[in-house]
Amino acid sequence: MRTRPPLWLATPSRYAGVTRTRARLILGGLALLVLLSFQSLLLGDAPSAEGAAGASDLALYEGIVAGMRSGGGYYDVAADQLRALDYPLRPFLTFRVPTLAVVQAALPPVAVVILMLSISVSAGLAWLGLLMARAFTRPAPLVAAAVLLAGGLVAFVQWPLWPFHEFWAAPLVALSMAVRRPGLWLSAAAIGLAATLIRETAALYLLVMAACAWIEGNRREAFGWAGALGLFAIVLGFHAWAASHAVGPLDAQSPGWAGLNGPGLFVRAVWQSSALQLLPLALAAPIVALAAFGWSAWADPAGKRVAAVIAAYAVVMSLFARLDTFYWALMATPLILVGLAFLPDALRDLATAAMDTRRVRVQRITR
């Protein structure tokens, strides 16, 4: 089937020219994805960064930084704060890697806020430049993408939330994806490694990027991302050893990570941590699903990688996250809404292919 000119995109979408059968299967999968998003309405009220659980976490992280500024060592101070607030101390992952606390304790609060804002703004500008160069050439879709990008990053410029590790790691992950180019991945891998040294859940991003590079045939890049993952594993090993010396036999054990709360938890978490919180959840839920799908329509390696990262965090959250670990979704929040800008071309191309009823008729003439 001959492809039609793109609506918003600079080049045809990934779904331009697909067969009728494949288009119908993809649309069926999208309908199922939207349907699953409504599972978020069935979950109990999850905590948020501004709620009671979020306030306790805020007190924990602020207390650790304050203790370090008073001369205390990270692991002893962190253990004391965890006990004081009735948090579990085992396994060692209940202790955050000390990178962020060390930086925050060494800098004045104003410098910390400026650094946090700089990372988020840099991620936004880097992605805006990338979208302008490779995705949208006309003003209307570019403005729409910029608004959607701001809607995903709005939570990450709220300076009262600076103690939360996810509010630093997530924009670093977004910045890493923006600076990655074919053959130029070293800076992206370094930024991704920095994100893991702030929040361990960013390691899933390194894993996805390594897998994407391997699938694309970029073996050297794949080994580079794997190397960054290996460096993180070494640091995590030292972190586990240090944390074990601050934990006693009577300290509480974490309930574990086997929530099995389904994709609704991911949808709800994105809703809570983006501009979508201005909408009721019943309306925001399908928007999250459509936005995640939209990224798959961009026929660019960056689009495929963003879609893969979003899908990875959604699956992991569906299987392992508890209601109070909603913040795992923050790794996907900065970029997910931009997927809506790719949706018009995707839906047009899929609908055109799905409704194609043309048949090839072969007529045999004998003389």
TrEMBL record:
Tagged with keyword Manganese: no
Domain of life where this protein originates: Bacteria
Stretches that traverse the bilayer: 106-130, 142-162, 182-215, 222-242, 275-295, 302-320, 326-343
Record has Ribonucleoprotein as a keyword: no
Assigned keywords, A-Z: Membrane, Transmembrane, Transmembrane helix
UniProt name for this protein: DUF2029 domain-containing protein
Organism from which the protein derives: Sphingomonas yantingensis
